[in-house]
Amino acid sequence: MTFPQWVLAVGNGTVPAASLDNRAVITPTNETVSRINASVLSCIPEETKTYYSTDSLCTESTDDSELENLYPVEFLNSLVFNGMPEHELSLKLYTPIMLLRNIDPPAGMCNGTRLMVVHLGTNAIKGIILTGTYEGTVVAIPRIALNFSEHKWPFTMKRRQFPVRLCYAMTINKSQGQTLDRAGVFLPKPVFSHGQLYVAISRVRSAAGLRFLIHNDSSLPTNCTKNVVYTELYSELIFQGNSEGFFFNSRLHISSPSLPYIFSYHYLYSRTWT
């Protein structure tokens, strides 16, 4: 069964939805994550419910009254900050979501917690926690007000929204702390910061659960990608695969003996999700 077929089977109720707790697509950027999540969501035969945020400028950050005229609500709606829920949040029943904020840590509702949506209300979303000590617990997620700022904007923005996002796919950075049985690492472009490739491939329990799809700015898949490490290190990674599986040839040169020991494991993607 391919991954799209499996997704449809979950939506039709022919595969236990609980199996979503240990599968995900991992990719470097939020833009790619949003595109994958929207594509998979469109395949689920459930009614879509869309929640829109209420955005405004924080009064304590507004030194000039003209800021509200310079940055209207429509512009604030279009802004996306790291770790911020989007203005337009579309969800369906039985889809996986991830918390973006600590809501109630003693009850297992922490930043990065993955849940399965079981109820989409007007003022609250109910979900089942998929992993960890509180696995199987049903919790309610309220709308909350979140403040965000970025150095290129002369204001702090307040967004009132459910602090969640779909997580069929997640960024490599957001996947830290997750343990998965199966992960598909999609690299439309090479990783761009130190250790990202290592973080991505270390999310799974075994090599059998890891698949790569590497494009590297090309429309055609390839079997080679860059690994970004400290600038003091020189690392050349050559990936070669065959129908039986994969192997790797790696050369790592440490130019400074004072640097900490750094290691990586590298695997090749498979053609199908099984």
What would you say this structure looks like, in words?
It holds the Pfam family Pif1_2B_dom. The chain is an alpha+beta fold and 274 residues long. The protein has two domains: 31-168, no CATH class; 181-254, no CATH class. It is 14% helix and 32% strand. The chain is built from five helices and 16 strands. The strands form five sheets. A five-stranded antiparallel beta sheet has the order 8-7-6-5-11, with no helix packed on it. Strand 7 (124-129) and strand 8 (138-142) form a beta hairpin. It is globular.
By DSSP (H or I, 4+ residues per run), the number of helices equals 5
Our Rg estimate from Cα atoms comes to 21 Å
Mean pLDDT: 76
Helix content: 10-25%
Q: What percent strand?
A: 25-35%
What is the N-to-C order of secondary-structure elements (H for helix, E for strand)?
HEHEEHHEEEEEEEEEEHEEE
The largest β sheet comes out as: 5 strands, antiparallel
Low-confidence stretches: 233-274
Which overall shape is indicated by the principal axes computed on the Cα atoms?
Answer: globular
InterPro entries: P-loop_NTPase (IPR027417), Pif1-like_2B_dom (IPR049163)
Protein name: DNA helicase Pif1-like 2B domain-containing protein
